[in-house]
Amino acid sequence: MRHGKYPFIIGFLAAPLILYVVFVISPYLQAFYIALTDWRGITATPNFTGLDNFARLLEDEVFWAAVRHHIVLLVAMPLLTIAIALFFAYLLNLGGGSRGGRMNGVAGSTFYRVVFFFPQVLAVAIVGVLFQAIYRPDESGVINGVLARFGIEPIGWLTNPDIALWSIIGVMVWQAVGFYVVLFSAGMSAIPKDVFEAAALDGAGRIRMFFSITLPLLWDTLQVGWVYLGIAAFDGFALVQVLSVDRGGPDNATTVLPLEIWRNAFNFSKYGYASAMGVALFFMTITFAVLTLRVTRRERIEY
After folding, report:
1. Does the structure show a pLDDT above 60 at 1?
2. ∠ CA(212), CA(217), CA(219), 5° rounding?
3. Of 116-130, 181-195, 257-271, the least confident
4. Which fold has domain 53-295?
5. Which residues pair with 54 in a beta bridge?
6. Domain boundaries, the chain
7. Distance (Å, rounded) from C-alpha 182 to C-alpha 188?
8. Among 17-21, 47-51, 138-142, 299-303, which is the least confidently predicted range?
9. CA-CA distance, 81 to 186, in Å (whole number)?
């Protein structure tokens, strides 16, 4: 049995590893190669151009506009999502205070968890169409219809370059919050209630318990959530495609790199240039994940 252990393990791992190499690693390697060519999707043997596509990226104003938008997304989306999700998760798990010597959530916590998670079940395209109706620039829009009752002129939520990106960020946060409420609720449920009860007996209030107990013991979960949200901030393709004016407009005010990759590849047949953008996006995502895990690393608290 001992002699047959390693062939047995290799036999189970071989198929998944082969599939991973063929369908994940191989496309990455192909993208790296195509980024060094001027391939337009027609010729069988593209011309090798070296780093010309990357040199063009450095002079492309639309590319840098998309990078700036990703920076805004990287800061705003995780901060807002985590802050709102932490607030709701704390209410659902510990916001009801101490009753009968036990810490409890607010009344109806189970129902609220389902309500908060519901947007996560909807397809991104459905969410985009839904918010197209909410953000309509006239009084037929849900928000502008409410504002009109107070005598406020309609606002171009998606047509005003100054607020269009923030309007889309609001949709991203709305859709993501439910998942992280459930994630943080699971993390809080794993913390022994005895810790909170002892703190309550010592006179600690809810705010003190949150910052002194909940946040430190939930740090690993927060770290994972921040990385996931950062990766999501580097995407945003579907919502920008559906919600933005003229796909990334107005005046490239909402464009993101995945949208520019799609546009260059399938609208302009610049597969080499689109692949160069994809390679740049790949390294930006990896760099963000590594730096986040490095900067937020801290000693694990055992409980």
Report:
1. no
2. 105
3. 181-195
4. MetI-like fold (1.10.3720)
5. none
6. 53-295
7. 10
8. 299-303
9. 17
Please report, as a single letter, which amino acid is at residue 20.
Y
For 284, residues 6+ apart whose C-beta sits below 8 A from its C-beta are 67, 70, 234
Q: pLDDT digits over 196-215, tens only?
A: 777 777 666 677 777 777 77
Longest dimension (CA), the chain: 81
Distance CA 152, CA 150 (A): 6
Task: Give the relative orientation of helices 271-295 and 26-34 as an angle to the nearest 10 degrees.
Answer: 120
CB under 8 Å to 82, separation ≥6 — which residues?
A: 180, 222, 225, 226, 229
Phi-psi region of 236 (alpha: psi -120 to 50; beta: other; left: phi over 0): left
36-81 per-position pLDDT tens digit: 988 887 777 788 888 899 999 999 899 999 999 999 999 999 999 9
From CA 12, how far away is CA 10, in angstroms rounded?
5
Question: Residues 6 or more apart from 22 whose CB is under 8 A from it?
Answer: none
Beta-carbon contacts of residue 146 (< 8 Å; ≥ 6 apart): none
Instruction: Residue 81: name the closest of 212, 157, 204, 182 by CA.
Output: 182
| Residue 161 DSSP symbol | T
The model's pLDDT over 85-116, given as tens digits with 9 standing for 90+, comes to 988 888 887 665 555 545 566 666 777 777 88
If we measure between CA atoms, which residue out of 284, 292, 290 comes closest to residue 261? 284
Q: Degrees (nearest 5) of the Cα angle 28, 30, 34?
A: 120
Question: Comparing 232 with 101, which gets the higher pLDDT?
Answer: 232
